[in-house]
Amino acid sequence: MMIVNRAKEIVDQAMPPGEIVNIKALAQQLGLAYNTMYNLYHGRGNRIDYETLDKFCGVFNVLPGDVLIRKTDDKKTKLGTATTALATGVTE
């Protein structure tokens, strides 16, 4: 399992065709530091501040679940099996 950041996809869809994203201008519009916007846009880093996520969602009119999605592997893991057993009460 992993969390996938879709900020770049959301920003790119909002841009007029043929226009290039200006991360500096976008950071200013959102009230964020350039480095924060750069990392969010390029999917770098392993966390996002709630305030940053809220600003991004407000400007692009999306929900946090649109920006960050959870992708799962098809392989079962011990933890996944244990979590399922706890949730369902069924053990193997």
How would you characterize this protein structure?
The chain has 92 residues and is mostly helical. It is 55% helix and 9% strand. The protein has helices at 7-14, 23-30, 34-42, 50-60, 64-67, 78-88, and strands at residues 2-5, 68-71. Helix 2 (23-30) crosses helix 3.
Q: What descriptors fit this protein?
A:
single chain, 92 residues, mainly alpha, 434 Repressor (Amino-terminal Domain), two-stranded antiparallel sheet, 6 helices
Q: Which of globular, elongated, flat, extended, rod-shaped describes the shape?
A: elongated
Strand order of the largest sheet: 1-2
Average predicted confidence as pLDDT: 85
Q: Can you say what the CATH homologous superfamily is?
A: lambda repressor-like DNA-binding domains
Helix/strand-derived class? mainly alpha
Quick overview of this protein structure:
The protein is mainly alpha-helical. The protein has helices spanning 7-14, 23-30, 34-42, 50-60, 64-67, 78-88; strands at 2-5, 68-71. The chain has one domain (2-88): Orthogonal Bundle (434 Repressor (Amino-terminal Domain)), CATH 1.10.260.40.
List the helices and strands and how they pair.
Layout: E1 2-5, H1 7-14, H2 23-30, H3 34-42, H4 50-60, H5 64-67, E2 68-71, H6 78-88
Antiparallel strand pairs: 1-2
Helix pairs in contact: 2-3
